[in-house]
RNA sequence: GCCCCCAUCGUCUAGGGGACCAGGACGUGACCCUUUCAAGGUCAAGACCGGGGUUCGAAUCCCCGUGGGGGCACCA
């Protein structure tokens, strides 16, 4: 069911914690946010959730920014671009959370807790042994405000916990699943401010979403269990909740569970990755990745599957999101990538191939690559294949295996004779175009009573020195008269040695 | 163990009571086209988890099983 809030300008945010590389799940969440923001003329905000100093990775924020840029998902407000509701790093917003936590304590909706980690650990184990759900069971919840205040004033180390009601229930609406009811007795007195004074996610994210006027919260389904806590926090402050949209999870290709670190590593060996940063180097286009990922958990109709980012901006709707988990299918990524590869104008495709050609040590130039682009784009799946397809255009000379110059069902001498005739025909050509070459050589095939594949295969191996290559005549045209003829003559020389 | 979510071809999905002996895509197989490889075209195999209801009628609604997934931290 669409909500009227989906159509007014939304304020949405992508709020990753800087603990590692941006992965596919994050990319999808960021994209859905972006789509709704652009569609409604709202704002897309990037917020860094760095309240955990232990897991903080100083390189992660840059990776997130780079990856998002690569995907083309530009944000309107964020740590690097600023905005009216900053700062956009939670570590820089510490002062904002403190009075909020104080307010909850004031109202009796939170309490100071002085229990040690050891005590909590012991209590948890004891409860687990009894087979009950482990929850906070210490004495601090019932401390008088005066005593708690006194201990804090005396410098006692403490955290702040949310005082979860012991009875009743709370019903929260998730946009994909409808109303979900949780019994409060199953909920915990969760820590909302750590002993280092920084809030945990539960408080920080809710406070920021409220302060930043976030209207829709897109996040992974792994957050569903803490949704009641978050709703309680919102309600404790008397704030209006955002639209909650819990996205399905991405499962490993086998469909058995989330991706683990171990499997992520193993994947690298097979040329697959879930990290956005690494996809470009593997030859994937942002367009392909986006299209692929968009369709894992969302669909437009029963048949449309090719989408550009702009298409998605106009067509995305929350109500067509699918709540069930999806196994990652890299074969399908190949498919979408090749689709988008073919959709690129030749010069653009060439531009994107250049880094790979240069990395392969080929003296490629943009003009030539642009001429090659149209004849290879239908056979390329990823950009990293560019050198394989194009290398022979840029080498000074090629070294065909002599045996490869003997056509099927022909002797070496016959092959040599045929190749010699072909060379002569081409040499005599007034204009070096693929149509003219094809016309001549087809006539020759006829004259010699050969099959097209026999002659063309010879010429292919002589000029490209590889059995699989782009269309022959177009290739020779691009190669140019001089180089082509030189290679043919060199091949004739090689054949000489076999006769 | 407790809590929560999910459930259509191997995979991603369409389907929101009759239009469905369930549609599309990837992948797979066959054939056609063909100078290699692709692309393209045609065809094929392939699914409503099970059981109860509700209804004249359920893939679609409800319940119970089962299965899968997620969560139970001073991490997000």
Describe this structure in words.
The protein has 499 residues and is mainly alpha-helical. The chain has four domains: 1-79 and 248-343, Rossmann fold; 93-247, HUPs (Rossmann fold, 3-Layer(aba) Sandwich), CATH 3.40.50; 346-391, Helicase, Ruva Protein, domain 3; 402-496, Arc Repressor Mutant, subunit A. It has 20 helices and eleven strands. The protein has helices at 24-40, 60-71, 94-106, 117-129, 145-153, 201-211, 227-237, 261-269, 276-281, 286-294, 309-315, 330-343, 346-359, 366-376, 386-394, 412-427, 434-448, 452-463, 472-479, 481-496, and strands at 11-14, 43-46, 110-113, 159-162, 169-174, 178-183, 191-193, 216-220, 243-247, 250-251, 326-327. The strands form five sheets. A three-stranded antiparallel sheet has the order 3-4-7. Strands 1-2 form a two-stranded parallel sheet. Strands 5-6 form a two-stranded antiparallel ribbon. The longest helix has 17 residues, at 24-40. The termini are far apart. The mean pLDDT is 95. The structure holds one RNA strand of 76 nucleotides.
Identify the CATH architecture of the largest domain. Answer: 3-Layer(aba) Sandwich
Biggest sheet strand line-up:
3-4-7
Distance between the termini: 78 Å
| Tally of strands | 11
In short:
Helices cover 46% and strands 9% of the residues. It has 499 residues and is mainly alpha-helical. It has 4 domains: 1-79 and 248-343, HUPs (Rossmann fold); 93-247, HUPs (Rossmann fold); 346-391, Helicase, Ruva Protein, domain 3 (Orthogonal Bundle), CATH 1.10.8; 402-496, Arc Repressor Mutant, subunit A.
């Amino acid at each position: 069911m669409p909500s009227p809030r989906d159509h007014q300008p939304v304020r949405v945010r992508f709020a990753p914690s800087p603990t590692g590389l941006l992965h596919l799940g994050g990319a999808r969440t960021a994209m859905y946010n972006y789509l709704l923001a652009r569609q409604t003329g709202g704002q897309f905000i990037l917020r860094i959730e760095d309240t955990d100093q232990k897991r903080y990775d100083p390189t992660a924020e840059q990776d997130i920014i780079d990856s998002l840029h690569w995907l083309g998902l530009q944000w309107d407000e964020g740590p690097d671009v600023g905005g009216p509701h900053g700062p956009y790093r939670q570590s820089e917003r510490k002062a904002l959370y403190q009075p909020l936590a104080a307010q909850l304590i004031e109202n009796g909706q939170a309490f100071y807790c002085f229990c040690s980690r050891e005590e909590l650990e012991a209590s948890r184990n004891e409860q687990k042994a009894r087979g009950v759900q482990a929850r906070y069971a210490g004495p601090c919840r019932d401390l008088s405000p005066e005593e708690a205040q006194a201990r804090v004033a005396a410098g006692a180390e403490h955290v702040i916990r949310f005082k979860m009601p012991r009875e009743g229930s709370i019903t929260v609406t998730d946009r994909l699943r409808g109303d979900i009811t949780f019994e409060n007795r199953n909920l915990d007195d969760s820590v909302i401010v750590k002993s280092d004074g920084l809030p945990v996610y539960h408080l920080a994210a809710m406070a920021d979403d409220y302060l930043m006027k976030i209207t829709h919260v897109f996040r992974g389904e792994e957050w569903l269990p803490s949704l009641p806590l978050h709703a309680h926090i919102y309600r404790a402050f008397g704030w209006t909740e955002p639209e909650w949209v819990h996205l399905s999870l991405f499962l490993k290709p086998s469909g058995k569970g989330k991706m683990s670190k171990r499997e992520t590593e193993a994947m690298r060996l097979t040329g697959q990755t879930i990290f956005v940063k690494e996809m470009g180097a593997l030859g994937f286009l942002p367009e392909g990745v986006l299209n692929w990922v968009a369709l894992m958990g969302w669909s437009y109709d029963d048949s449309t599957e090719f989408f550009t980012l702009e298409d998605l901006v106009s067509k995305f709707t929350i109500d067509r999101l699918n709540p069930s988990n999806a196994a990652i299918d890299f074969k399908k990524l190949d498919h979408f990538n090749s689709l988008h590869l073919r959709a690129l104008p030749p010069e653009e495709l060439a531009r994107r191939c250049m880094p790979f050609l240069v990395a392969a040590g080929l003296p490629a130039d943009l003009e030539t690559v642009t001429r090659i682009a149209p004849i290879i784009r239908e056979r390329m799946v990823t950009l990293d294949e560019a050198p394989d397809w194009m290398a022979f255009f840029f080498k000074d000379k090629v070294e065909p295996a002599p045996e490869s110059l003997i056509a099927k069902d022909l002797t070496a001498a016959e092959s040599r004779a045929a190749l010699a005739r072909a060379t002569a025909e081409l040499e005599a050509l007034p204009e070096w175009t693929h149509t003219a070459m094809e016309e001549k050589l087809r006539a020759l095939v006829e004259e010699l009573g050969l099959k097209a594949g026999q002659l063309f295969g010879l010429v292919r191996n002589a000029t490209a020195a590889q059995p699989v290559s782009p269309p022959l005549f177009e290739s020779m045209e691009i190669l140019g008269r001089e180089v082509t003829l030189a290679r043919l003559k060199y091949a004739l020389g090689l054949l000489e040695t076999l006769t």
